[in-house]
């Protein structure tokens, strides 16, 4: 069970949204690589920032869960699962669509630390075009001792 859970409706302009440290440099142009690797895995990572790719170019439901420890992984419930590390230096994270004005975006209170973030992508197969589908996204976070590479747990 999460110790805190936050629910959002995020406009996924350009098929993406961001979760970032409030004080990150917000260098979103550096998270999507030219080779397309980040795009193919639907996850880009930068300093204090993760960009989550979405199936729809539309408002999507997003949950952020903070956990005491690594939660049980239920792969069968999701279409895709990725993990990455996120260094949070401030006491707030921003969650926003890529064209949202960051000062107006939602904030999530958090303890500064290194976190592992598991991105669970649900119902991707229901998306028929850019506008219609039942996709949803869950970001589970827990503190970890060190930064680790991106893991693709379910492609």
Question: What's the gist of this structure?
Answer:
With 155 residues, the chain is mainly β.
The CATH C-level class name: Mainly Beta
Q: Provide the β-strand percentage band.
A: over 45%
Spatial gap, N to C terminus: 25 Å
The tally of helices reads 1
Q: Compute the number of strand runs.
A: 11
Label the overall shape. globular
CATH third-level topology: Substrate Binding Domain Of DNAk, Chain A, domain 1
> What are the segments in which pLDDT stays under 50 over at least 5 consecutive residues?
none
Helix content: under 10%
Strands side by side in the biggest sheet = 1-5-10-9-6-11
Major sheet details: 6 strands, mixed
Fold and architecture overview:
This protein has 155 residues and is mainly beta. It has one domain (4-154): Substrate Binding Domain Of DNAk, Chain A, domain 1. Helix content is 3%, strand content 47%. The protein contains 1 helix and 11 strands, in the order ββαβββββββββ. It has one helix at 37-41; strands at 4-11, 16-21, 43-46, 49-53, 59-67, 80-88, 92-97, 106-109, 113-122, 136-143, 151-154. The protein has a 6-stranded mixed sheet, with no helix packed on it. Strand 3 (43-46) and strand 4 form a beta hairpin. The radius of gyration is 14 Å and the shape is globular.
